[in-house]
């Protein structure tokens, strides 16, 4: 067991409905994207030794848990989310010995470590899949194989079992000449979906998970885990297959229907997650499980995370990340603040009695929120951070978010490395011709996953401290040019920096039970400028107000009515305004704002009421 950097919440404070309270109830998680975090050997790729070298920085920030994106052996078709061996480390990242060293060093500093679990699919180079290509092999039914559509020659256009399209472009079916059948891949054609209907598959996955838990990791973040259960008809056919009793949805503008409704939060998800809990985590303590949850809404999140149901501790629900796109992520629209309030409010209300929620705006699949919803100024980064971290749940910080890192601002297609991005250009611009090159390049600049994957900005040297400035090769993807202004070296000792502000947010969650577990209530729901809510626990109550615009705005009516006559009487907790006094939050400025009834651009204030 590691020694946490925070005090435990007393059981008199209700968190997720479990007794005693889980250790993670007031914890903060930090996501590391290993290939972009720290390169220790100047080959252009981040690695495990690089992570170990930066543990003091992470401990200094105050976070409790480190989540590592995949470092397993992989052909890297989708940056490691295509795993060829779950129990070995890809040489680009190091060795199992390096992982053991990193775990020991993290635990010594009170940091827990969770690994990415990718078991909806494997790489097509995994030994399981290679064996599955033989119909007579015991692994033959470990993946979802189907014959060609009736009346069509296998391997020819239109012979696919149904009209499903991959989320990464093209058909979701790939023909395999050796087996003479098609396999399902919701993502890349090198990421075949496992057949979770087969109990042998499930128990092989559980055995692997137990192997890692026994090795000393502290849990898992589970990639697209709510897609492991598919919808079949009474005869075992998928929607849209020849003879299926379930009719598929119509094809879309790219010429395919979507597997999403039939492969997300399927009929056996609860059963599988309960079985996993029993087979892997029963009898263990000190762990954390979080599932990436495509297709799951706020209500289902409450069910899956309710401890009495024995499934997962928390989920990543994405409804709030879809409010600023029109139909597809490649058609971004301006954020409507009331829509964000509605979706986050739904998530908060769904777990008000039991269950838990993950709090996040950034990760390896999302653009930088300082660019997405802010204006890239330090103050907007602070305002958005305050907004997120003052909600009830477990905050997740993506590497560099605590510095205010921004989108990459790439202007050419050859600057991108992301498979989804490159495939989208081919599918939407060159093949289906449903989008112009100009519009999709603009969308990439706003939404491509590569915006989050540029190297961590440690300092203002040539490669931002990610690797040596005089290295013979450069990073695998370009460093953001603004690293000369936005970097850890410039911020760690600056009390007014975004980094210092995040340290304050993390400390508040550790120290103040109201922030960690207090009831949440939205106010001023109709305001398109100010996001306001209260947090209440016993006799303690906080009012949170965040001006989400670059213009001065009035404190909205409901918030104004709650303000005390003397804002200094019970102390302002925090303010995003830069503090001339150098204490990281400017009480005097907050008091002046509240007395004037206005909030400065990107000003966020928390006040006891």
TrEMBL record:
<feature type="domain" description="Glycosyl hydrolase family 13 catalytic">
    <location>
        <begin position="31"/>
        <end position="453"/>
    </location>
</feature>
<dbReference type="GO" id="GO:0004574">
    <property type="term" value="F:oligo-1,6-glucosidase activity"/>
</dbReference>
<dbReference type="InterPro" id="IPR013780">
    <property type="entry name" value="Glyco_hydro_b"/>
</dbReference>
<protein>
    <submittedName>
        <fullName>Glucan 1,6-alpha-glucosidase</fullName>
        <ecNumber>3.2.1.10</ecNumber>
    </submittedName>
</protein>
<dbReference type="InterPro" id="IPR017853">
    <property type="entry name" value="GH"/>
</dbReference>
<keyword id="KW-0326">Glycosidase</keyword>
<dbReference type="Pfam" id="PF00128">
    <property type="entry name" value="Alpha-amylase"/>
</dbReference>
<dbReference type="InterPro" id="IPR006047">
    <property type="entry name" value="GH13_cat_dom"/>
</dbReference>
<dbReference type="GO" id="GO:0004556">
    <property type="term" value="F:alpha-amylase activity"/>
</dbReference>
<comment type="similarity">
    <text>Belongs to the glycosyl hydrolase 13 family.</text>
</comment>
<keyword id="KW-0378">Hydrolase</keyword>
<dbReference type="GO" id="GO:0009313">
    <property type="term" value="P:oligosaccharide catabolic process"/>
</dbReference>
<dbReference type="InterPro" id="IPR045857">
    <property type="entry name" value="O16G_dom_2"/>
</dbReference>
């Amino acid at each position: 067991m590691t020694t946490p950097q925070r005090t435990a919440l007393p059981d008199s404070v209700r968190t997720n409905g479990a007794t005693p309270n889980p250790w993670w109830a007031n914890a903060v998680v930090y996501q590391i994207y290993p290939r972009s975090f720290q390169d220790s050997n100047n080959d252009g790729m981040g690695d495990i030794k690089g992570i170990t070298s930066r543990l003091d920085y992470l401990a200094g920030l105050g976070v409790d848990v480190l989540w590592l994106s995949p470092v397993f052996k992989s052909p890297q078709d989708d940056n490691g989310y295509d795993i060829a061996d779950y129990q070995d480390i890809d040489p680009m990242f190091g060795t199992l010995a390096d992982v053991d060293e990193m775990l020991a060093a993290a635990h010594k500093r009170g940091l827990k470590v969770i690994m990415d679990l990718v078991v909806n699919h494997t790489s097509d180079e995994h030994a399981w899949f290679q064996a599955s290509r033989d119909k007579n092999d015991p692994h033959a039914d470990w993946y979802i194989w189907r014959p060609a559509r009736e009346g069509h020659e296998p391997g020819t256009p239109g012979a696919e079992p149904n009209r499903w399209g991959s989320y990464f472009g093209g058909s979701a079916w790939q023909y395999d000449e050796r087996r003479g059948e098609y396999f399902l891949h919701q993502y890349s054609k090198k990421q075949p979906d496992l057949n979770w209907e087969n109990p042998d598959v499930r128990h092989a996955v559980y055995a692997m998970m137990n192997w890692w838990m026994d090795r000393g990791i502290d849990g898992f973040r589970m990639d697209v885990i709510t897609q492991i259960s598919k919808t079949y008809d009474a005869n075992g056919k998928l929607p849209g297959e020849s003879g299926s009793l379930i009719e598929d949805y119509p094809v879309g503008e790219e010429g395919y229907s979507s597997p999403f409704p039939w492969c997300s939060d399927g009929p056996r998800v609860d059963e599988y997650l309960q079985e996993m809990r029993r087979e892997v985590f029963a009898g263990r303590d000190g762990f954390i499980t979080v599932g990436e949850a495509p297709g799951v809404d706020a209500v289902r999140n409450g069910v899956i995370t309710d401890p009495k149901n024995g499934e997962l501790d928390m989920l990543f629900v994405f409804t709030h990340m879809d409010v600023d796109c029109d139909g597809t992520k490649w058609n971004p629209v301006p954020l409507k603040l009331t829509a964000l309030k509605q979706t986050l409010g739904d998530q908060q209300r769904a777990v008000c009695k039991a269950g838990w929620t993950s709090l996040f705006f950034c990760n390896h699949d999302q653009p930088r929120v300082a660019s997405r919803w802010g204006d890239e100024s330090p103050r907007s980064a602070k305002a958005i951070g305050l907004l997120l971290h003052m909600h009830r749940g477990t905050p997740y910080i993506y590497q560099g978010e605590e510095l205010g890192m921004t989108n990459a601002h790439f202007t050419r297609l050859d600057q991108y490395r992301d498979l989804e991005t490159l495939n989208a250009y081919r599918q939407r611009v060159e093949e289906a011709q449903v989008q112009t090159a100009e519009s999709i390049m603009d969308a990439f600049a706003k939404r491509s996953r590569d915006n989050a994957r540029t190297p961590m900005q440690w300092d203002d040297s040539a490669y931002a401290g990610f690797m040596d400035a005089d290295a013979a090769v450069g990073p695998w993807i370009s460093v953001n040019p603004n690293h000369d202004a936005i970097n850890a070296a410039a911020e760690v000792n600056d009390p007014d920096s975004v980094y210092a502000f995040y340290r304050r947010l993390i400390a508040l969650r550790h120290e103040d039970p109201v922030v960690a577990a207090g009831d949440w209530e939205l106010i001023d729901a109709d305001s398109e400028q100010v996001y306001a809510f209260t947090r209440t626990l016993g006799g303690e109550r906080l009012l949170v107000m965040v001006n989400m615009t670059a213009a001065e705005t009035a404190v909205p009516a409901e918030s104004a009515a709650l303000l005390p006559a003397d804002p200094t009487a019970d102390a302002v907790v925090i303010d995003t305004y830069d503090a001339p006094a150098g204490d990281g939050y400017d009480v005097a400025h907050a008091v002046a704002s509240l007395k004037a009834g206005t909030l400065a651009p990107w000003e966020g204030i928390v006040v006891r009421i």
